[in-house]
Specification:
The complex is a heterodimer. Chain A is α+β, with helices and mostly antiparallel strands. Chain A contains 17 helices and 20 strands. In chain B, about 50% of the residues lie in helices and about 15% in strands. The longest helix of chain B is centred in the N-terminal third of the chain and has 27 residues. Chains A and B meet through strand 17, helix 14, helix 16 and helix 17 of A and helix 3, helix 4, helix 5, helix 13 and helix 15 of B.
């Protein structure tokens, strides 16, 4: 065993979308950070489709950007196709989606990390987390090096005991051809954590040279386009096209005939996959009356002919995947370059976490991304940023950042995870946000950027500009022709201010109602459940509520109020007992 | 979760008996509400003032008002006490007016809770509050479980189902970024929304028009003095405390409360005073008063004594009562004292509580058979009344916003939130479940 001679503040395990945001933000916050990843060549790899954003997810990317995170900026570097979704509907549900060149995305991210001060990137595999007196102490790697640390952010993605399924074939791996991490979950189990299994899948990739695109409807990029990051301005780009097609009756026949050969129905996979990303065989079984499912061909990059077929996720044997392709007009001669597959992996029940994403029972251990039962790059990135920031803050002796449900999708995401747990891979939807009208694409910075300045995640010299920007929006709300000096806004644009002002006015009455409701929630969230006070021991609350309180260990009365099934009287009793506790301890 | 910033209102006096009812309002909007009620705004703190209470421009009542300014009040907040004539109409109407002016009905023990949290009450006093809330908690839970399983809730279940389905139809289209779904069927959705709105409105109407709600269902207890009638009343009231009244604005902190059975608010009326006089005649005055109570009662419970040797007087009184009672239930009390049993009534023990469940069932049965409950569901709580009205309004607004899906959803969600207590919470997970079970969506 080699004892590394330096102690880190924060070690981030895993270099995916959660881990990269976590490492970057932790280092930005000034914590000495180590990122351990199995392979430097797969940093920020888009394991599934080559796109960032989408409905509700696009809002999350904007939030990451507003908080000083990297996902939006990297997306703009790698972008090959922009599309603002839902422009036919109200602005509250507009969402940006950007097709990216996968390789550019990875390399751009890797370079961001390399250039970041306080950040050490290392290619190795974490195999064990050591604790001392209930707190994180060190990480041991496959190459038998011991790295001492004060905090750990675990972002293991689909790699913990990952198993790949293609038909009957089962391979170890977190992604096809990438090794699984087979040791670390045992270490988590030793720490007393409850491990479960989830599943997800991906479609086949094909060679575009073998596709008859004339049979598809092209979807060109928006041009002009809105960049993903508010810190970027539109530039001249080489755009690629996406293509829209459909499955046929023949596809349905193939699926009916070969259903049993899918890993999903052969008994090899028992874990639950995301309902929003069903495999094509799943769709056929659950909705036999729908025979013509949409397919969306997405280019994988500028320097490759590979295409991703959204809508064709499958764990059928390879020969059936060929039969499926041949049933689709325009794909009759398509060559598979990588087959579709399903992957199963370990996750940890996220109710073991505080809203800071710290594990309740292991001080200094934070989780982010798929280990918490979520799915999606954006969901991972949002958690990664919060976990990375809070790990650094913890080491620095500062209270964690807990985003509220009325100020961000990230807040909704984390609150849902830690308060309700998951039954399937959790994907964000706008319907999960009770304050949807407030949580828009256009105002992520207005909602969150103050935090970025508070924690030093954006350059200080921008603070003045941001104040001017906020003022401009307020001015423009009352007078759309108000004179604004665009220079004073810095990286923020006058066009964006005008847009936000217009949207705020449009939703005025609804926003006021939302704000009033959110205020009540905020007040309840301000009532901290004190250290040493056990709400589950309060006399008079229902037995069912006691069990839930004992499991969730809410941090605030507001969080307690969101635990399903707790009654108003339960909360009233807890509130009075908190005051009683406070008075008894004031003596 | 009770919002501590809300202004709350409730009666501080019991529902039963008394000529004067005291309404308490506490919170930052107290004075504003008071001005709306009395058209006056210059009250001197801690000084009772005679005022006219208005319902719009009509006079509702003459009342005595005392205000207390924060922090020098029972709750530590701005507080008003309005003493009104205890007529059932006046009471329910003034509460409605307070709610329309921005107050919310106080939860059980909430005035005292605020007093405690604002440092106006010590730990010992607070214990009493905790006991009340905790008793109400268990009872409310039991009542909720009963009502979810019960026959009364079928209509609510249907409303829940309909609204969940409509919201899922809206949400799935918000998520459908590629235009895969057919547009929302405007006419059909509009009609479906208006149908539920009408339903909510109809339910709300049962509140404002129902005699039962304004006056309560009167249950008279009759019998000879030593029949154990008073113990039965106490036992039932004690039980009442433990099953919570969902009647709006009833006294929250005192030990007395009307009995609530499956959504029906009962008022127990003791006809005490019927006794045997020295010459074995039944007191004339007692009979008269008893007759009056029985005339007004919707149900009369005649309490017989199982241990009584000479039943002549009891039978005489029984015959008298039988002639006048609309719905008569006979109970035989003191089952704990004797093994003697009869078959023409319910055997109970007011002391041990034996048989009270049977009596309760009999009351409910009688209510349904009798002509006093013409409607399947009667809204008996002012809170539910308000909730239904708001929900109806929100659903109408939703029906006008079908072209703006996100706004339509806002109104629908508000309606669902309003109806939460009646139909149960509809979570985002419920909506997603509906979407994924009905539509083939996803990438």
């Amino acid at each position: 065993m080699f004892d590394f001679d330096k102690t880190f503040d924060v070690i981030v395990i895993g270099g995916g979308h959660a881990g990269c945001e976590a490492a970057l933000i932790s280092a930005k916050r000034g914590a000495k950070t180590l990122l351990i990843t199995q392979s430097l060549d797969t940093i920020a790899q888009m394991s599934c489709n080559p796109s960032i954003g989408g409905i509700a997810k696009g809002q999350i990317v904007r939030e990451i950007d507003a908080l000083g995170g990297a996902m939006g900026k990297i997306t703009d570097i790698a972008a090959v196709h922009y599309h603002m979704l839902n422009t036919g509907k109200g602005e509250a549900v507009w969402s940006p989606r950007v097709q990216c060149d996968k390789k550019i995305y990875q390399f751009a991210y890797k370079n961001f990390l390399e250039k970041q001060e306080n950040l050490h990137i290392l290619q190795d595999e974490a195999t064990q987390i050591l604790t001392k007196n209930g707190a994180v102490d060190a990480v041991i790697t496959l190459r038998q090096t011991k790295y001492k640390t004060k905090a750990v952010v675990l972002c293991s993605g689909t790699f913990l005991k990952g198993t790949i399924h293609v038909g009957k074939l089962m391979l170890g791996g977190g992604r096809y051809n990438d090794n699984a991490a087979n040791f670390l979950s045992n270490s988590l189990k030793d720490l007393g954590l409850k491990i479960g299994r989830l599943k997800t899948g991906t479609p086949m990739r094909i060679n575009g040279k073998t596709v008859d695109f004339s049979k598809f409807t092209p979807q060109p990029s928006d041009n002009p386009y809105t960049p993903m990051s508010v810190f970027n301005r539109p530039v001249k780009k080489d755009f690629l096209q996406c293509f829209i097609g459909r499955t046929t009756d023949k596809t349905a026949e193939v699926l009916a005939e070969h259903a049993k050969e899918s890993a999903l129905y052969s008994g090899n996979i028992n874990s639950i996959g995301p309902r929003y990303c069903p495999s094509i065989e799943d769709k056929a079984v659950k909705f036999p009356q729908n025979r013509h499912h949409p397919l969306f061909l997405e280019p994988e990059g500028l320097h490759t002919e590979e295409y991703y077929i959204q809508g064709f996720s499958t764990s059928m044997p390879e020969y059936v995947q060929y039969l499926l392709l041949r049933s689709v007009e325009g794909l009759e001669n398509a060559q598979i370059v990588r087959p579709g597959y399903a992957v199963e992996y370990d996750y940890v029940d996220p109710t073991c976490l505080y809203p800071s994403l710290e594990v309740k029972t292991v001080l200094g251990l934070f989780f982010a991304g798929q280990i918490n039962g979520t799915t999606g790059y954006e969901e991972a990135g949002g958690q990664g940023l919060i976990a990375g920031l809070n790990a650094a803050l913890k080491v620095q002796g500062i209270e964690p950042l807990i985003l509220r449900r009325d100020e961000s999708y990230i807040g909704v995401l984390i609150d849902d995870l830690v308060t309700k747990g998951v039954n399937e891979p959790y994907r964000m939807f706008t319907s999960r946000a009770e304050y949807r009208i407030m949580l828009r694409t256009d105002n992520a910075d207005l909602r969150l950027t103050d935090y970025a300045f508070k924690y030093g995640l954006l350059p200080k010299e921008y603070a003045k500009n941001f104040e001017a920007y906020k003022e401009a929006v307020t001015l423009l709300e009352t007078d759309e022709n108000a004179k604004i000096d665009e220079e004073s806004l810095g990286p923020w644009s006058l066009a964006a201010a005008k847009n936000s002002a217009k949207i705020q006015n449009k939703y005025k009455g609804y926003l006021e109602r939302n704000i009033k409701e959110a205020k009540a929630l905020e007040n309840a969230d301000k009532i901290i459940i004190p250290e040493g006070f056990d709400p589950s021991a309060v006399k008079g609350i229902l037995i069912e509520s006691k069990q839930k309180l004992a499991k969730i260990k809410p941090k605030t009365l507001g969080q307690a109020s969101r635990i399903p099934g707790l009654t108003p009287s339960d909360l009233q009793l807890i509130l009075i007992h908190i005051e009683k506790f406070r008075r008894e301890h004031a003596k | 979760m009770y919002n501590m910033q809300d202004t709350i209102a409730a009666f501080a006096t019991s529902n039963i008996g008394g000529a004067v009812a005291v309404l308490r309002i506490s919170g930052s909007k107290t004075l504003q509400i008071l001005t709306e009620l009395t058209h006056k705004n210059n009250f001197t703190p801690r000084q009772a003032t005679l005022v006219t209470v208005y319902d719009g421009n009509d006079i509702l009542d003459k009342a005595l008002v005392t205000i207390f300014k924060t922090p020098k009040s029972y709750t530590g907040e701005d507080l008003a006490e309005i003493s009104l004539h205890a007529g059932p109409y006046i009471k329910s109407r003034i509460l409605e007016l307070c709610l329309t002016s921005g107050a919310r009905l106080a939860g059980p023990g909430e005035f005292s809770q605020r007093a405690f949290l604002n440092g106006k009450m010590d730990l010992v006093e607070a214990q009493g509050v905790l006991d009340i809330i905790s008793a109400k908690n268990k009872a409310a839970h039991k009542a909720a479980v009963n009502s979810l399983e019960g026959r009364l809730s079928n209509r609510f279940k249907q409303i829940r189902q309909n609204l969940t389905d409509i919201l899922a139809q809206v949400e799935v289209r918000i998520d459908d970024t590629e235009g895969e779904m057919k547009a929302l069927p405007q006419e059909e959705t509009k009609n479906a929304l208006l149908k539920v709105a009408k339903e909510a409105q109809n339910l709300a109407d049962t509140f404002s028009s129902g005699r039962l709600v304004k006056e309560g269902i009167k249950v008279a207890l009759c019998g000879l003095t030593n029949a154990g009638k008073s113990s039965l009343l106490n036992k039932m009231l004690g039980y009442n405390r433990a099953i919570v009244s969902n009647k709006a604005g009833t006294t929250r902190d005192t030990v007395e409360a009307p009995l609530s059975l499956l959504g029906f608010d009962l008022v127990l009326v003791d006809t005490a005073g019927i006794r045997q006089t020295t010459n074995d005649d039944i007191e004339i005055e007692g009979i008269n008063r008893s007759r009056q109570a029985i005339d007004q009662a919707d149900i009369t419970i005649f309490v017989r004594d199982l241990t009584l040797q000479d039943k002549t007087e009891e039978n005489k009184l029984f015959d008298e009562v039988k002639q006048n009672a609309k719905n008569l239930i006979t109970v035989f009390n003191k089952a704990d004292k004797t093994d003697y049993r009869v078959k023409d009534g319910i055997i109970i023990s007011a002391k041990t509580g034996e048989g009270l469940d049977l009596l309760e069932k009999e009351i409910i049965k009688t209510l349904n058979l009798g002509d006093i409950s013409g409607q399947e569901i009667i809204i008996t709580s002012a809170a539910h009344y308000k909730t239904l009205l708001v929900a109806a309004l929100e659903l109408e607004k939703a029906s006008e916003k079908l072209a703006d899906l996100e706004l339509c959803a806002e109104h629908l969600r508000t309606a669902l939130k309003e109806l939460k207590e009646l139909i149960g919470e509809v979570t985002s997970e419920d909506i997603l479940d509906t979407i994924f079970s009905k539509f083939c969506v996803g990438k």
